[in-house]
Write a structure and sequence with these properties.
disordered C terminus; 218 residues; mainly alpha
């Protein structure tokens, strides 16, 4: 019974933290603000989450559970169109994206309480993105990369766009930019490359730029 009450209280604290982050952003999500929201003293809150970082990591873990319908991102295969929908959804919750990005940046330092979470999470997410790319493209993407080699790039674009969008949301349309990246992963449309760049290539004598071309890659 006591364990069930403790679990209910933790869930209540996490919901309150989501609300505070949505209203006040990452910096405004103080332990005092969350404790007040759930009718606890700060000491009472610390009984469930010993530090602010521990609370925020728990919030991010809960977010991943909600986003994936109860499973971690390493346990399911996402379609890339659903990834686009997730990016659109994130654009509607800047406080959570800010929390994720701020903790991610801090977690690269040794001993940071969020380091283990992000290390584990990226291992899972790379595996999930590899499965996604393999399901859609097979063993080779149109550009020649294997799913294993392309997966870290896909993850880097998703998370890197968040930093650019947070810093200058008027200049960076995060969902549209991600769709542009997904377009690069698809096979070229028939006749693509026959615009100005393609025409220039046709006008150049065969072999004229052979010395500038890199050799084949694996």
């Amino acid at each position: 019974m006591a364990r069930a009450r403790s679990a209910e209280r933790r869930a209540e604290i996490l919901r309150a933290t989501f609300e505070v982050i949505a209203e006040r952003g990452y910096r405004g999500a103080s332990l005092n603000a969350v404790a007040e929201r759930v009718g606890l003293s700060q000491q009472g809150l610390l009984h469930h989450f010993p530090t602010k970082e521990a609370l925020l990591v728990a919030v991010l873990e809960e977010r991943d559970q909600w986003d994936t319908g109860g499973g971690s991102r390493g346990e399911r295969t996402w379609r890339t169109d659903l990834l686009g929908s997730l990016v659109e959804y994130n654009a509607m919750r800047p406080g959570i994206v800010q929390t994720f990005s701020a903790l991610l940046g801090e977690s690269v330092t040794e001993g940071h309480p969020a380091r283990e979470f992000f290390t584990r999470r990226y291992t899972q997410v790379r595996a999930s993105m590899t499965a996604t790319l393999r399901a859609e493209h097979g063993e080779r993407l149109p550009g020649g990369l294997t799913p294993e080699r392309a997966a870290p790039l896909l993850v880097a674009v998703m998370d890197g766009l968040q930093y650019q969008w947070l810093l200058d949301p008027e200049a960076v349309d995060m969902p549209a930019a991600f769709q542009d990246f997904l377009a690069l992963l698809r096979p070229a449309e028939p006749g693509a490359g026959q615009g100005p760049a393609g025409a220039d290539a046709e006008r150049r004598p065969a072999g004229a730029d052979a010395e500038q071309r890199p050799g084949p890659t694996n």
